[in-house]
Design goal:
The structure is a homotetramer. The first copy, chain A, has about 190 residues and is an all-alpha fold. The first copy, chain A, starts with a helix and ends with a helix. The first copy, chain A, has a single domain, classed as Orthogonal Bundle (Tetracycline Repressor, domain 2). Chain A is elongated and about 60 Å long. In chain A, helix 2 packs across helix 3 and helix 2 crosses helix 7. The first copy, chain A, binds a DNA duplex (21 and 21 nucleotides) through helix 1 and helix 4.
Chain lengths: ~190, ~190, ~190, ~190
DNA sequence: TATGAATGAGGCTTCATTCAT
DNA sequence: GATGAATGAAGCCTCATTCAT
């Protein structure tokens, strides 16, 4: 009984606000999204936003930091199951694409958006960029990567993942990305392998 | 005499406006750039902008369409010199990277910015995306590309070019990109070749 | 038992609210003080304020009217003990300064603040202004005040009391004001005496 | 002709804005005055305020610093004509009261308002408080002031000037204050003289 | 023609007050 | 009765665009 009351007290409009903000930030960018937009889509008043966040900016940053931490941690775990480059690339790319298929909006906000608007905040958190760098560094130690600048290779892997997702959004590619994971990771392996 | 002075005034201000706008749009985005910003950096009054453009939006679009057309046309010519995938990739990537080295701001505005802010306008013009698509389609006809979805391959090539440039901007890669062109086009060829 | 707890709860919160409000109104002014400020400093919820007062304005007015009535009545009594101007001035000024020393915040709220924010309300209650006027009128009848406009003299006496207190707050004067009472009332007497 | 054009260019709404702001700040306080109030009374749009000032606060501070500097400098000069306490007090008080009669609103804003809202800004400028302090210090050196704390005496003189003006505003005193100057400065002299 | 003051719409944020729990 | 999330009305400020000079 008490529990229920507590529950219902907590029955806040926060989730609706978060979802509305995420969608709009992704669709139009943080700047172009107005607080009124968010409020309307969330079905609340504008003032309600400010019970949960001090500013629109803070809302955007919270959304970014919270979810990106979670996503990267998950991806880290998936990758660490394996110890060779080929399987790690597969795990990485499949993890990304599965996430894209499950919540395209969130993936777009976290990974595809360039986020000049978040400023330094976006550097505070582990990103797939760091994961890729780590994967390649370890692979190099084990002799699983051919000669060449690792940062350059990292840029290429990440560029591939991101642009494939963007093509999917624009409809230049169709269907679930998951079904493309093997082909993409195979391609990456082709240019990385010794 | 008056005429000449007026002429030269006009000659003198438009380029300043265009350059100022380009820089600011690239640095902060179109939305976040104010007309006052542009006027101040160009050394003209705010009102003066409206002698050349009907709106800030039009200025942004003009800038995009004009330069992108020109760049893509140049790149088209460079690529058409060759008739095989390997050399065409080299021409493409070297063209892009050389452009990046020569005018990073313009390259960023044309190719790296996602430009939600330009809306449909950004679809009106030939983009390197189309060039890559054409290169791959012809290569496929000539049996120079292995099996696999061409759109997917295209996404990957473009993703690589773009992300390498972005890494350069963030300082994760250093030096002129031109020096990386061979390594990058070689990598592309490795995963595209039959 | 429950009743007692509730009773004591009520007993406990109203004074906290009143004190918090008084302090904040004095520090920042009524306008600049938010209900959230008051609630936080009093350790209650914002909603709780509305159990005791219908509005922030009413709280401010209550605070003013209640305490000022009480203070002026006390001062009236102190002054009426005497029947000559000299001693009455001493009683008046010592009463004011002692009050200042004992509860500077309350004195400031009642006497030093100009209270545009209270509007007409602040005219509803007997103020030291009226007491001074009465003292001087009686003194005039008894030939204890020299020639001159009594209202002007009243303004001067009150101005002296108030400004000395303000100087104390700004630290331009130091120590308990009580120790200055004799010197100040003597000065007043000097310019009032025939 | 050119001159006229230049003049008319400068024919800005700034004076109207300054006057409207001054009046409203004096009537209702800075806080309680909205930018909309100011704009309406000045007959301009709200945005127009921001061409001349960065914020409402800056407008309030400018108004204060500019005019107070000017007023105090004038008063300084009037007082320095004399070299004895009696005449200096007369010059001081007559200067204040004449100013009050000429522009009551401005005098109120500069001298009568407590201006918690201006914060530290209000300490940046010479105030009649400093002038009075200087007058008394010199008089003490010349043996023209009786024993006693000079700061306390200063507080009393200023308190008298201010409160007389406030009584005039409330209508407790009537007529031009200038006509009261002699009586007031005489009273001050009575309690200051040895 | 060039300027920059002005406009007016709209953005972000605050806050007294209400109300469901 | 107490809580604090929510409301809705302002408040301050920004900015693309216009227009008198």
């Amino acid at each position: 009984m008490d529990l229920i009351m507590e529950e219902s007290k907590r029955d806040t409009k926060l989730p609706a606000i978060l979802r509305a903000a995420l969608e709009l930030f992704t669709e139009k960018g943080i700047y172009a999204t107005t607080t009124k937009d968010i409020a309307r889509r969330a079905g609340v008043s504008e003032g309600a936003l400010y019970r949960h966040f001090q500013s629109k900016q803070e809302l955007a940053e919270d959304l970014y930091l919270t979810h990106l931490s979670y996503f990267t941690a998950q991806l880290d775990r998936s990758v660490l199951v394996y110890d060779n480059l080929k399987e790690r690339l597969e795990a990485l790319i499949e993890g990304c694409f599965r996430f894209f298929d499950e919540d395209r909006t969130l993936f777009t906000y976290l990974i595809l958006s360039e986020h000049n608007e978040l400023g330094r905040t976006s550097r505070k958190v582990r990103h797939i960029r760091h994961l890729v760098r780590d994967i390649l560094a370890e692979a190099r130690e084990r002799g699983q990567v051919r000669e060449g600048d690792l940062e350059l290779f990292g840029a290429m892997v990440i560029g591939i993942i991101i642009r494939v997702a963007i093509f999917r959004i624009y409809g230049l590619i169709t269907g679930d990305l998951k079904t493309r994971a093997a082909e993409v990771s195979d391609s990456c392996y082709r240019f990385l392998a010794p």
